[in-house]
Specification:
It is a single chain. The protein has 345 residues and is an alpha+beta fold. Among the domains are: 84 residues, Sandwich (Immunoglobulin-like), CATH 2.60.40; 70 residues, SH3 type barrels, CATH 2.30.30.40; 53 residues, no CATH class. Helices cover 47% and strands 27% of the residues. Strands 2, 4, 7, 8 and 9 form a five-stranded mixed sheet that branches. The chain has a five-stranded antiparallel sheet with strand order 15-14-13-10-16. Strand 13 and strand 14 form a beta hairpin. It is elongated, with a radius of gyration of 71 Å. The termini are far apart. The model has no long low-confidence stretch (mean pLDDT 84).
Length: 345
């Protein structure tokens, strides 16, 4: 009986130990089960939907249960130029690359993967610059288009010019052969064109409206028009020619008058000089007659007398006029005449 009781006690003890082991094992299992990671989620700590190049963005890592460990978790990113890492605070940090595009990220731990997030990566500075350049280019194109439209509009209203191809073509007051003839256009004359009316051309003629048959006109460039000729220029040339002719006539008349005056003055001067010379000769003759001398019976002038005295004075002792006169009178009248003629006195 006693032996049976011991066996029973042993069985009870074994059974109690088994029960204790089961309870302890179940508790450990239940505790481990409560700590096991069931899910992971990423929560962005920013509001941007498009990420900037070269910028860091932080994500909170949430687990279920919240006490689950993620020490062995890895952060995955598909863009080789970007980085995605879990820091010491248990948060994931994404650093975007320098290229625009997209980036996809997620966190994985013990075969548990978070949701996959995809973001666009943009370069707002480059885009702003590109947008500014595009706006500037658009503005430039708009300005060029406006300038082209303005130039086209100006060209549409630009002045046109024509040249007369006929000679003495009638310029009429209306676009009809019944119109009054305002004048005649010579070949080559230039006019400003207003418009074409049927087979007539409306032109500006002497600051008024005129009309010419289009068949006698041809369009010319502004450069050719500026070279002329114009009817106004011809009239101006005619006026200039008339003025020049008048001036030449006046100059010729003035020259004729001057020549006549010069000739009259020269004639008067010549007559005055001749009169003066005649008066001088008459005075000299009178003076000579008043002071004439006679040597050896030959009458001589005062000049001749003095020349003879001077000639023979060297032969006298004292050189007086009386001695010289005596020396002269030694010669005959014929000799005295010969000396005077020879000396040219």
């Amino acid at each position: 009986m006693r032996k049976q009781n011991n066996i029973l006690r042993i069985l009870i003890l074994v059974f109690a130990v088994l029960i204790a082991l089961l309870v302890i094992g179940g508790g450990i299992y239940l505790f481990s089960a409560s700590k096991k990671l069931k899910a992971i989620s990423l929560q962005p700590e920013f509001t941007e939907t498009s990420l900037e190049v070269g910028t860091q963005y932080t994500f909170s890592i949430n687990t279920d249960p919240s006490s689950a460990s993620i020490k062995k978790a890895t952060a995955v990113v598909d863009d080789p130029t970007s980085s995605f890492e879990i820091n010491d605070n248990g948060k994931a940090v994404l650093t975007t690359g320098m290229n625009e595009g997209t980036v996809t990220i997620y966190v994985e731990c013990k075969d548990i993967k978070s949701q996959v997030l995809t973001f666009s990566i943009v370069d707002s500075v480059a885009r702003a610059q590109a947008e500014a350049a595009a706006q500037a280019e658009a503005q430039k194109q708009a300005e060029e288009a406006a300038a082209a439209a303005e130039a086209e509009a100006e060209a549409a209203i630009a002045k046109k010019y024509v040249k007369c191809t006929g000679d003495d073509v009638n310029v009429r007051s209306t676009n009809s052969t019944d119109g009054d003839v305002l004048g005649k256009a010579k070949k080559g004359y230039m006019f400003e064109k207003v418009e074409e009316v049927d087979d007539w051309t409306h032109i500006k003629y002497k600051d008024q409206d005129g009309y010419m048959k289009t068949e006698f006109l041809t369009e010319v460039s502004e450069e050719e028009y500026n070279e002329g000729p114009f009817e106004e220029e011809e009239k101006e040339d005619e006026k200039k020619d008339e003025k020049k002719t008048e001036e030449n006539a006046q100059a010729e008349e003035s020259q004729t008058q001057t020549k006549e005056e010069a000739e009259a003055k020269a004639k008067a001067d010549a007559e005055k000089q001749a009169a003066e010379e005649l008066a001088a000769q008459q005075a000299a003759a009178a003076a000579a007659a008043a002071t004439s001398y006679t040597l050896s019976g030959v009458p001589v002038t005062a000049t001749q007398y003095n020349n003879l005295l001077n000639m023979f004075r060297f032969a006298t002792p004292n050189g007086t006029d009386e001695e010289a006169k005596a020396e002269v009178e030694i010669h005959s009248g014929a000799e005295i005449r010969a000396i005077i003629q020879d000396k040219g006195w």
